[in-house]
Amino acid sequence: MIILKGGTVFGADQTLADVAVDGGRVVEIGTVAAGPDDRVIDCSGAWVGPGLVDVHVHLREPGQEWKEDIASGSRSAAAGGFTTVVAMPNTEPAVDSGQMARYVHDRGVEAGVVRVVPSGTISLERAGRKLSHIDDLWAAGVRIFTDDGDSVADAGLLRRAMEYIAELGGIVAQHAEDSGLAGRGHMHEGAISSRLGMIGLPSMAETIIVERDIRLVELTGCRYHVQHVSARATIEVIRRAKAAGLPVTAEVAPHHLAFTDRLVESMNPVAKMYPPLRSDEDVAALRVGLADGTIDCVATDHAPHSAHEKDVPFEEAPRGVIGLETAAAAINTSCALPIADFFDRMAVRPGQLLGLETGPLVVGSPGDVTVFDPAANWTPETFVSKSANSPWIGHELTGRVRSTIYGGQVSFQLGEDGQ
Hints:
Helix content: 25-40%
Strand content: 15-25%
Radius of gyration: 21 Å
Shape: globular
C-alpha cells in the first residue's frame, strides 16, 4: 500500500489528510496508520489530487523517434504529474487506421508509466482530401479525431466527418488556422513582427476557422474541441457558443499563458511555436478564460525537436516547444489557480473529455494521483524528455510535482533517478 501522508487533499473539503492507495484504488482518506510493508510518501505542504490529464501531446512515434518516443514521452509525462496523455496522430505514418492506433496504444502499455490514449486523423494521411478510416479507428478505441498540425480546410469534408463522428459519440478536435490568412507567418502579426521585419501570422487566422466550425457544430451536433487557443477574439467566440448550449470545449497551452511575442525579440528559435506567442491583451484574455471556465483545460501541446533542428535561424526552425515536465509549475506561476481550479482544469475536465473516471479524490477513486507542491521554487535546466526545446530553461518557476501515482504504482518520485 502507498500512503500519501499529510497533504491538502482535493476532495470534498480540501482538508489535510492522508491518502492510501492499494490495488489500483484509493482505499482510505483520513488518518492512515502505516504498516511495515507500506510505502509512505511525505506530502506536507503539497496538494494531493487526481492524476493530471493532457489531451494534446506529440510523442513522435512512429517516424521521428530521435525527437521523442512513446517510452521517453511517457516518462516525461510522469515527471510532470500526468497519468494520462493523448498522443496526436501527426506521426509518420499518420494514425489514420485502427492498426496504427493499436500500435500507439500497445507501445504505451509497454512503457507502463502513464495511460497513452491514441487519437486518430480526420482525413486520410492528414491530406485533407478524403476521410480517414473513422470506423476502424473507433473500433480500436479512438475517441478524439484531429488533423492536428494542420486545420481541416475543406468545410464539406469536415461536415461529413462531424456527421459521422457525432453518430459515434466522438470528438472533433481542430487545429484552428486558416492557411490562406496564416501564409508563411513565423510569429504573431503585430508591432513586434513589423519592427523585426518578419512575416506575421494574424490571430484572425485562428478565430475565423473556429467561427466557421461552430456553424457546423450547430448543423451536426458534433462535439467540438478547439486546440491550443491563443487569441482573445477566439475566446469570445467560444464563450458565445457555450452560452448557446453547443457542445464546444477548448484548451490552452501553458506557454500561451506565460509568454508574449516579446520573447521573439531574442530571435531564439525556442520561442517559435504554433500558434505563435501573441500580445499582452491575448495573454490576459486567456488567463481570464481559463479562470472563468470558458477554456476547459490546460494541454501542453508537447512538441519535441532535437537540438540540431532548433539550432538554425529563427525563420528556418521547426515550430513547437516541450511542456510536459513544466506544465503544472507554469500554470501555477502564471495563473495561481486555487487547488480546486488547478485540478479541475488539469485533471477533471480533460479527463471528462476522454470519459475517464476522474474527480475529487474519494474512497474508491482510481489510483491515479498527483502530488504537487505549490510553493516550491525551481529553475528547469534538464529534462527526462529526449528533447530540451523549452522556453522555461533558466526561468524560475513556482510549484513542482513531487510524486505521480499511476494505476496504484509510483511512476515518478522527485529526488529519485537523478530528479
